[in-house]
Amino acid sequence: MTQRTITIVGVGALTLIVLVSALLSVLAGGNAPGITHIDPGNIGLVLNIYKGDLESRPMAAGTHFQSPFERVIEVPTMQRTISLTDSDLDSSGNVEQNAVEVNTASNMLRVDVSCQYHIDPDKAADLWRSYHDQFEDLQNFEYVSLEPAVKEAVNYAMGDMDTTTALTTVGKQEAEEESLQSLNEEWSPRGIIFSNFMIRSVEPDDQSKALLSSTLTETQAIDNAKLALQQQKIDNATEIQMAEADAKINQLENSTLTDLFVEDEMLSKVHQAYLPSDKISGIFDSK
């Protein structure tokens, strides 16, 4: 009876110790012991709350046992999209004016941008050590760290462009390539890999729109004047060719008429004489 009582007391004490340890772990920032699940495409960073650092090996996707002295930070490693436009909706369903503002030498442009990125699983732990709580909330991490980086890259790529170039397809493609390269040079070593950088549209400010409209109108007028001048040159050349052709025809006609005129003049000087036949024979006989 005494041995059984000691056994029950020992089991009860052990259970109490486990419960107290679990409670202390939760109060210290850990989780209650049990089963934890990591979704496909994610990894789980295991934080040892007593060591204050991450375990060397993260949890892969699947089901795992979590001790009371651990806190699991689930990190998505699949592609995510950052969209900075004037047409996206916020959480309330309202249009959010979030396009990138680019200050050029002459005016301001609003650029709609979207790009994708993913987290390198091998560097996820280093990202957590650098950003801690901010990294655990990826939406906040994007807002505080990644979106400003995208805006800076676009400004760097398009800041020296003139407005006309920035509005062309070639200008947009050049800015996309330069922005993507700039982002990866900065963030790839940290574990953020950017891809599929797209500039959807470029809109100048109202003053620039008015200036562009005036410039296009004047340019069109100049082009029309050049076209008219070119047409006039063609018309003049055609008239010259027609005049030359008429002159040649007239020259040929005059040449023909001149020969006929000379013959006519010569014939007009011939006088007809009527002689008797015997006189005519006498003339020939005298010779």
Short description:
With 287 residues, the protein is α+β, with helices and mostly antiparallel strands. The chain has helices at residues 2-27, 124-131, 133-136, 138-158, 163-166, 169-187, 206-268, 277-286; strands at residues 34-38, 42-48, 53-54, 62-66, 70-76, 80-84, 100-103, 108-119, 192-204.
Output the CATH topology of the largest domain: Tetrahydropterin Synthase, Chain A
Number of strands: 9
CATH architecture label of the largest domain: 2-Layer Sandwich
Task: Profile the largest sheet.
Answer: 4 strands, antiparallel
Please give the share of residues in helix.
40-55%
Task: Estimate nothing, just give the exact number of structural domains.
Answer: 3
Using only C-alpha atoms, the radius of gyration works out to: 48 Å
Please tally the helical runs, counting DSSP H or I stretches of 4 or more residues: 8
Structural class determined from secondary elements? alpha+beta
Give your account of this protein's structure.
By secondary structure, the chain is α+β, with helices and mostly antiparallel strands. It has 3 domains: 9-74, no CATH class; 80-204, Band 7 domain (Tetrahydropterin Synthase, Chain A, 2-Layer Sandwich); 206-287. The protein contains 8 helices and 9 strands. The strands form 3 sheets. Strands 6, 7, 8 and 9 form a 4-stranded antiparallel beta sheet that branches. It has a 3-stranded antiparallel beta sheet with strand order 3-2-5, with helices on one face. A hairpin with a 4-residue loop joins strand 2 and strand 3.
